[in-house]
Structures are given as structure tokens and as C-alpha cells.
Design a protein that fits this description.
Layout (H helix, E strand, L loop, with lengths): L3 H17 L5 E2 L29 H8 L3 E3 L19 E6 L7 H10 L20 E3 L4 E3 L15 H5 E6 L7 H19 L6 E3 L20 E2 L2 E2 L1 H16 L2
Parallel strand pairs: 2-5, 3-6, 3-7, 4-6
Antiparallel strand pairs: 1-2, 4-5, 8-9
Helix pairs in contact: 5-6
This protein binds zinc ion.
The site of zinc ion (ZN) has 4 residues, from loops.
Amino acid sequence: MKSPLLIFPLTLLAVVAAVVCCTPAVPIGSERGVEWGTQRSGSPSAQQTSRPVAASGNLASLMARVNLRQDLVPKGCHGRKVFRPMTPRYITIHSTQNYSADAYKHSLALKRGALRAPKRKGGNRIGYLIWHFTVDDKVALQHVPTNEQGEHADFDGPGNRSSIGIEMCEHRGSNLAATMDRTARLAAYLMRKHGIPLRNVVPHYHWPRRGASPPNKNCPHFLLENGRPGRKWRAFLAKIDSYYQQMR
Ligand SMILES: [Zn+2]
């Protein structure tokens, strides 16, 4: 039997861990000159980088429609168990294929460590799925700073090592057009912020997953045709580009 003296600190630790892992979302979307790629948990305006985006009135109004909020997985927890620095060179677009969860539900799952990924010996993987943003028809939530690697695309491949991952929700009753529009605005802003060209905005399909069948995933499935990028993907890129051009 365990001593009550031992049980009390363990219980306290569990309570503290639960509280730390349930920090509420912080609004950050429409602030002028806001820099959220290097923010720390719970500190929405902690740091400015050397390449801030000039938030003109036009940019601020374009970003206000994104309703971007920070809801980070705490540092040291689950998908952020290990700090893996990243310089983002690509943006990878996904869809959740989960028909019952909105952005907040996905965020909660990430904060609880509920989304496990198989670990591989010798790899750079940490055993939890993690991506940077989840977008639905009402909000865009950020889960991890954009200078940290995610685990959403291609195991130990370049998709995970060099891309910002954005998941689009498709839960029943949601407005998919609104979700795609919000995603396009967010992608355009990330392009501006990190100097990422449009050709480096790619569907998950772009990254082959070594050992998986098929290696190139049909994702985001509603923007692909017969499992490949075609007319619908090009139209989506054109929408991103139109917001990008407006964000000067
Ligand atoms: Zn995907």
C-alpha cells in the first residue's frame, strides 16, 4: 500500500498538470503587428521577431475575419514534449476527415495528448500528432509556434521538418466554404510573414509517406480530384494568392 504522504504530492502533481494542460484560448488575430510565430504559452505578445508583418489597416481587416486565437499545447507536454526547432519553408494543407469535431475539440485532444502517432526507432518522432493550426467555420486555433516542428505529414520526412501544418475541420453542419476562406486568409498571412512562395503551399498529398500505402495521402480530400491536385486545388491556390496580393 502506498503511503498517504506519497499519494498527496502525486495527486497534487496530477492536478497541476491538468490545470497547466487546460489553458483557455487567447485572442490574437486582429492585433496590429502581432507576432505569434515565436510566442510562448499563455503569453500572446511575448516576443517580436526581426521580420514583423506591417499591419496596415487592410491587413488588420483581412486578419480580423480569420478570428485567430492561440490555444497552445503547453511546452514540454505531448506533441511539444521535445523542442524541435523549425524554419518554415512550406505550408501543408490538410482536412481532418473527422465529421464530429470542430477546432476546439481538436485543440482539446492535442492538449490532452489523445492523438498518438507510432514512434519509430532512431527517428525524430515523439509519439504524438501535432500541427500548427486548426481552422473551422468560426475560428482558427494555433497549437504550436511556427518555429517548432509538427508531426502531421510524412513521419521523418521534409513535410514535417519544414512545413507549417494547417488542418481544416469538416464536421457535420459546418460551413466548409467559410472554413476554406478562413484557411486561405491564414495561409496568405503565413506566406507574407515567413516569405513562403505560393508554389510552397502544398496539399498533404505532396509529401510521400515512406512505407505507407498509398504513399501520397488523399488529403485534403475535398480539394483533390481522384486523389490528386487538379482544378479545385488550383482554385484554392488562386484564392490564397488573391488574399496574399491584398496583404501588402
Ligand atoms: Zn492530411
